[in-house]
């Protein structure tokens, strides 16, 4: 089989939607999987709606996700230019071919594509007028997701508007031909256009590409019903960038919107995705966005990160919250983050989770406070543990455990008579990293000072 050539053909008119990123990703995965080429083609013929800012955001988002392209803006290639706004001459050439073959004609300033077949007129409810129709042969759209879809165009359609701009259908097909595209993976919303496209391919005497029309992305049930919109939480790639999600987690999650590996494994590295992805396994039914799943997948990727990759986004999140700065001790920061890494789902949760490591001014959870301090012996337990901690030879987790255990034995109590109180005294909450390493990291000074403060307040 000849080399696979796929393309991602966005029209950058606004923020990059997760569905757009998915189209890019599936094309990229397919190209990488098959050793083919991914072409990035910018469909910017709508001068009013396409903006430089949107293009920049799009390219930036693709790079952040790790989706690179073999031909296109910034990298060039043999079938450039890669902006449709710069391909006018080619469109003229292809238009001429249709005119020469009597497959196009001018009417009211626009140029129409001429379908083949017997012509007749019929009253059309939609246009409320007699319109000319054509008895064409149905076209068969070869779609790997939907099987063969048979459709029939019955009216000539515009390929060059009266203002001289070529139409989307026309340039889309001309470019797929000129760029030698073998597979078209795009959103299901384009399926109704595809019979027009196949008619154009036929008119140019070129075999149409293999199509894969991907299912719509549906709203998270918590946000309502129907198609996900740009306003829904989690819909924009920029949001994931701003919220410090891991790009490989976002890629993993997006890949599962309409595709899944045969064994339903959910957490996959980029290499695993490339290895296991196949357009044959794309699903037909709408793909439901699931914010909880996104968060879980992000957590799984965060847990697996080597600490040197975990640090920069973590430090950035803590920095944004004003908890750390250039003066923060690097070793201290590292041990705090090693404790947090196994516990939190996203970098945006880090500041509230870890604030007490960096400031004495952290939030106290009133429920935990009430539950722990209402016990009659709370004050006593805190008072007796303070001198023990002050007197330990060293403040590492093992020594801490031995010291507190000895105290508990002496009082004929379980060690857990102290643990929740200790945790609350130093962090203000009932949960968090493993207690003993956390105390070790905080250090004797902070731990004892916080215990004394709590004791004084009781
Ligand atoms: N510019 C079109 C879009 O963004 C491309 C459609 C296609 O992939 O053929 O929807």
UniProtKB/TrEMBL annotation:
It is an enzyme of class 6 (ligase). One of its GO terms (biological process) is glutamyl-tRNA aminoacylation. Residues 328-453 form the Aminoacyl-tRNA synthetase class I anticodon-binding domain. One of its GO terms (cellular component) is cytosol. ATP binds at residue 230. The keyword Metal-binding does not apply. Keywords: Aminoacyl-tRNA synthetase, ATP-binding, Cytoplasm, Ligase, Nucleotide-binding, Protein biosynthesis. Its EC number is 6.1.1.17. It catalyses: tRNA(Glu) + L-glutamate + ATP = L-glutamyl-tRNA(Glu) + AMP + diphosphate. A motif ('KMSKS' region) lies at residues 227-231. Catalyzes the attachment of glutamate to tRNA(Glu) in a two-step reaction: glutamate is first activated by ATP to form Glu-AMP and then transferred to the acceptor end of tRNA(Glu). Belongs to the class-I aminoacyl-tRNA synthetase family. Glutamate--tRNA ligase type 1 subfamily. This is Glutamate--tRNA ligase. It comes from Pelagicoccus enzymogenes.
């Amino acid at each position: 089989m000849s080399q696979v050539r796929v393309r991602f053909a966005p029209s950058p008119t606004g923020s990059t939607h997760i569905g757009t990123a998915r189209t890019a990703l599936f094309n990229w995965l397919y190209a990488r999987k098959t050793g083919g080429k991914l072409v990035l083609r910018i469909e910017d013929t709508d001068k009013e709606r396409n903006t430089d800012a949107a293009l920049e955001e799009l390219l930036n988002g693709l790079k952040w996700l790790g989706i690179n392209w073999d031909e296109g803006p910034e990298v060039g290639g043999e079938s450039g230019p890669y902006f449709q706004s710069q391909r006018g001459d080619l469109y003229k050439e292809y238009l001429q071919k249709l005119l020469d073959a009597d497959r196009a004609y001018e009417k009211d300033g626009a140029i129409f594509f001429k379908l083949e077949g017997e012509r007749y007129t019929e009253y059309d409810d939609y246009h409320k007028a007699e319109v000319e129709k054509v008895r064409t042969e149905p076209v068969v759209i070869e779609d790997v997701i939907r099987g063969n879809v048979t459709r029939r165009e019955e009216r000539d359609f515009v390929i060059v508007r009266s203002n001289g701009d070529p139409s989307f259908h026309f340039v889309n097909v001309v470019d797929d031909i000129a760029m030698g595209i073998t597979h078209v993976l795009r959103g299901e919303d384009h399926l109704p256009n595809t019979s027009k496209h196949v008619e154009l391919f036929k008119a140019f005497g070129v075999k149409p590409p293999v199509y894969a029309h991907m299912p719509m992305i549906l709203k998270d049930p918590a946000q309502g019903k129907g198609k996900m919109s740009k306003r829904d939480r989690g819909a924009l790639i920029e949001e994931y960038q701003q919220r410090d999600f891991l790009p490989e987690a976002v890629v993993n999650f997006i890949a599962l919107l309409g595709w899944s590996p045969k064994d339903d494994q959910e957490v996959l590295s980029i290499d695993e995705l490339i290895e296991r992805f196949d357009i044959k396994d794309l699903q037909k039914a709408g793909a439901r966005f699931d914010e909880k799943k996104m968060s879980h997948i992000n957590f799984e990727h965060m847990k697996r990160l080597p600490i040197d990759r975990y640090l920069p986004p973590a430090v950035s999140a803590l920095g944004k919250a004003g908890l750390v700065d250039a003066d923060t001790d690097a070793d201290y920061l590292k041990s705090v983050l090693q404790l947090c890494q196994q516990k939190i789902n996203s970098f945006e949760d880090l500041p509230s989770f870890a604030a007490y490591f960096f400031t004495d001014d952290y939030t106290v959870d009133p429920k935990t406070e009430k539950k722990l301090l209402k016990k009659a012996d709370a004050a006593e337990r805190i008072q007796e543990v303070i001198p023990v901690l002050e007197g330990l030879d060293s403040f590492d987790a093992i020594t801490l455990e031995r010291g507190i255990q000895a105290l508990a034995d002496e009082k004929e109590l379980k060690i857990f008579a102290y643990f929740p109180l200790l945790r609350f005294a130093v962090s203000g909450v009932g949960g968090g990293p493993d207690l003993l390493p956390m105390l070790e990291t905080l250090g004797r000074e902070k731990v004892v000072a916080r215990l004394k403060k709590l004791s004084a307040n009781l």
